[in-house]
Task: structure prediction
Amino acid sequence: MYLSNLHLESFRNYQSLAINCSKGINCFVGKNGSGKTNLLDAIHYLSMTKGSLNSVDSQNIRKGDPLFFIKGEWKAAKKGAGKGEQVQVAFQPGQKKLIKVNQKEYEKLADHIGRFPVVLIAPNDTDLIREGSDGRRKFFDSIISQLDASYLENLMVYHHYLKQRNSLLKQYGDTRRLDKTLLAVYDEHLMKSGQLIFDSRRDFTEKFEALFSPRYQWLSGGAEQTKVVYVSELSETSWKENFKKAIDKDMALQRTTFGIHRDDFEFLLEEEPVKKFGSQGQQKSFVIALKLAQFDITSQVKSFTPILLLDDIFDKLDDDRIKKLMELVGEDDFGQLFVTDARPERTMTLFKGLKKDKKLFKVEEGKVEEIDF
Result:
């Protein structure tokens, strides 16, 4: 499937915008701060019901305007595959966010996740390696949630009861009284949903790692051995046993100290952490390979290619990695690409020779104009 058009009203720095997209390659060029990344973020909203840059919806409304509105139409890549599907996202402070497909509103926003998948590669992706476990969990949770609706449901249940349990522990800190009956109810819900999440993460990591390693070797041009390892306390012990053991610590710290919310994913290169021992080039190859493996596994499960968003990454890559990416996007069955670049001449050089349907857009101060390649 591909996005055939995009319409914005009062989103970020765009007062009003309507463009028709190529089903192949779409390049947005312009100075930094002109609004190129905001266009990719609007596509992310249509897919994931939230932005990739700022999850606070009210902060994505154009200054001085009462609400924002995003609309796009997805079409099947093959001719004669039926009508397209129109997606609308609207948000006004004080009201719930509205997501519609073909004018029909969702009862739950979560039902939309995974229907129109996207993969975003951005300059700050190396944060996945350098920063803490929270970002890595969110990365993998996002992928699995787009592929498995039951996983997202279990994740929402788990975090609901985790919040309730932590609130109960905080209440104990204030009153020195603990409702053990209510605690047992929360524990039961956490154990049930948490076990399902653990099983899904473990199984997914095995499949993902098998796709990731070849992508890394392809990008790096070497034979270095890589691993993505799922690390969880549940791998070595049982829920019930550890909830009992941890209760004194939980009461002292007023938070839940055992569970899948503490899981991590280790990134290894030649059996050593990439975070500590990987060069800058190796870390870049690692994160791009992670995103390409996300692209691969999504394509396998969905039986169609997700949209790939490349946000201003060429300045961060050397010529060899750029060449590899161009080989990928030039493939006939690759799918739709949206890319931003602050250097129009570079984009022209990289994409002009590709024999694919493509469009070039000049972005300037919230205005977008299609120009010739």
Notes: DSSP finds ten helices and 15 strands in the chain. The first strand starts at residue 2 and ends at 11. The first helix runs from residue 36 to 48.
